[in-house]
Design brief:
The protein is mainly alpha-helical and 377 residues long. It has helices spanning 25-43, 48-72, 78-104, 112-118, 120-124, 129-140, 174-181, 185-199, 213-236, 241-263, 287-294, 303-307, 315-320, 329-343, 352-365, and strands at residues 20-21, 282-283, 297-298, 349-350. The chain is globular and about 65 Å long.
């Protein structure tokens, strides 16, 4: 059965938060009309795609642990040990895109319990599913590109991502330092970011989430489990500490660099807006309009995008209809693109290298004292 739960994708924010969008009868009518068009399109699409997506999603975690077991057999071949850990790094991204991202939106299985259960796969591969689900579905999807609210692209003060962020002297060099720092984004997520969200009250997630005690228990349990099997078990089996550290570093950097093609392309670039609330904490424009000005697509519709990268490039369709499975995103994108053309909405799609270049230009533009007229990448 095709999942067609597309009505009202805007998740409610607790009452203590006062940030809001402008009400617009026109946008409400347009969104309703677009929903109807998408609904009709979905009814004509093959249902078996979702079954294939489910099989792929469940295969990737299995493949991750198969590579792990194979790595443990390479006591006398350190190179193969590292190569299998590298393959595990690739699997991390495939798991995240094809399984985790889908189940947190409830778009992979009809069973809510099954979707919730499969979220723990993220915990098994090192990250905390509870806090990331709330960062992504409650904050990022409601307030993409809004400083102080979009925790998916919130960074430490080391980088100035939002143009409205305070400028610091170190930011002068951020467009150069990014090539040294970005490869360790995933390591920071696993080892530092999750703990900051749980224990630092200034984190954005604390605006909308009161973390239950049981989640603290789960945080430490799964982090300890991950550290044990990924680091301590190989040492216990006879691998040198330096070999395990190299393998782990290569695994995380591989996963990180693969993931950057997804994380950097749809929002954080000079072509997208970074809206700032007014004095009444109201964002200019409606939620519907906000999705168009803060999100772009990446051009391409091929086997690799569809079956490996979970149609990450059809990002605007996902933000407008996050409960629709990615397997139908290309057709939904066609509907969105045509509707945007007819109603003069700001739909944009760029080649992937252009999108990455636009991200670099954003980082460079936000650097203190950098010459924005200097030739860019």
């Amino acid at each position: 059965m095709i999942r067609i739960t597309i009505f009202n994708t805007f998740n409610p924010i607790p009452m203590k938060s006062k940030i809001a969008y402008q009400r617009s009868a026109k946008s409400k009518a347009q969104y309703s009309e677009l929903q109807t068009l998408v609904h009709r399109t979905l009814l004509g699409l093959p249902k078996h795609r979702l079954w294939y997506a489910r099989m792929r999603a469940l295969c990737y975690p299995s493949l991750f642990f198969v590579f792990y077991l194979l790595a443990l057999q390479q006591l006398h071949n350190p190179l193969l040990f590292v190569l299998f850990y590298t393959a595990m790094g690739v699997c991390i991204v495939l798991i995240f895109l094809n399984l985790i991202h889908e189940v947190v939106h409830g778009s992979l299985f009809q069973s809510k319990k099954l979707n919730n259960l499969l979220q723990y796969v993220l915990d098994l591969i090192g990250a905390n599913s509870y806090i990331w689900k709330r960062r992504h579905t409650v904050l990022h999807h409601n307030f993409s590109n809004v400083a102080g609210w979009d925790s998916d692209i919130e960074q430490a003060s080391f980088f100035r991502i939002f143009p409205s962020d305070p400028a610091r002297p170190l930011h002068r060099f951020q467009h150069k330092l990014m090539f040294l720092v970005y490869p360790f984004y995933l390591a920071n997520w696993l080892l530092i970011r999750d703990f900051k969200d749980f224990f630092k009250r200034a984190q954005i997630i604390r605006k909308v989430t009161a973390i239950p005690v049981i989640e603290y228990v789960k945080l430490f349990f799964f982090k300890l489990l991950y550290f044990t099997y990924i680091f301590l078990v190989p040492i216990w089996m006879g691998f040198e500490i330096w070999q395990v550290m190299v393998a782990l570093l290569v695994m995380l950097v591989t996963a990180n660099n693969f993931a950057l093609f997804v994380l950097l392309t749809p929002h954080t670039n000079i072509q997208n807006a970074f809206p700032v609330p007014d004095d009444q904490n109201t964002l200019r424009g409606s939620w519907f309009e906000h999705q168009f000005i803060t999100t772009n697509d990446v051009e391409g519709n091929n086997w690799f995008f569809r079956n490996v990268m979970a149609n990450f490039n059809c990002h605007l369709a996902h933000h407008l209809f996050p409960h629709i499975s990615y397997v139908y995103a290309p057709e939904v994108t066609v509907v969105v693109k045509e509707y945007a053309r007819e109603h003069k909405l700001d739909y944009r799609a760029y080649p992937i290298m252009h999108a990455l270049s636009y991200h670099y230009q954003l980082i460079k533009r936000n650097a203190i004292g950098s010459d924005i007229l200097e030739e860019d990448m």
